[in-house]
Design a protein that fits this description.
mainly alpha, about 85% helix, about 0% strand, rod-shaped
Length: about 170
């Protein structure tokens, strides 16, 4: 009798490992995009905060200088202050907008589940074809012997279990 093809994929653990590897690649990509988003947002907020602190320092120096000279170099300090303050506000707003962007969805493994279901369906189809081919042919002697032995063991187990339960009820 010809040897039947295997009912399972040749390397089922390799297939599962490939699915897990693909899913972990998706998760790593998701984490990379998420960490980049937060790193950029944090950098913009810190740059904005530093610029605002610099603007406040210049404003205090300008106020001091203005008070000291009573209207001389005030316009120069005001211009530097205004520039730093505008840069700081723009950086903080940009950073906050970066944080408010929609976070990408966590990978659900849809591609891997599709691949798994396709493989399971193909395996089930192949198994059904093999069983239908074997069912149409006459079983060999070893199969008949094994089926009979299994039936005898099952009958003995059922008899013993039934006998034990009837003793417990008495």
């Amino acid at each position: 009798m010809a040897r039947s093809p295997s009912l399972l994929p040749r390397r089922p653990l390799g297939f599962i490992a490939a699915l897990l590897g693909s899913y972990s690649s998706d998760v790593r990509g998701w984490l990379g995009r998420l960490s980049t988003k937060y790193a950029l947002g944090t950098a913009f907020v810190f740059a904005g905060a530093i610029a605002i602190l610099g603007a406040l320092a210049v404003a205090l120096a300008a106020l001091f200088r203005w008070l000291e000279l009573n209207y001389g170099e005030v316009y120069a300090y005001g211009g530097v202050f205004g520039l730093l303050f505008v840069v700081g506000v723009v950086a903080v707003v940009t950073g906050l907008m970066t944080f408010k962007r929609r976070t990408p969805a966590f990978p659900k493994g849809e591609q891997q589940m599709h691949a798994l279901s396709t493989t399971v369906n193909a395996t089930a189809d192949r198994t059904a074809r093999i069983i239908s081919v074997r069912a149409s042919s006459r079983p060999d002697a070893l199969t008949t012997l094994l089926a009979g032995s299994a039936a005898a063991v099952l009958a003995g187990w059922l008899f013993k279990a039934r006998r034990r339960s009837s003793r417990m009820n008495d």
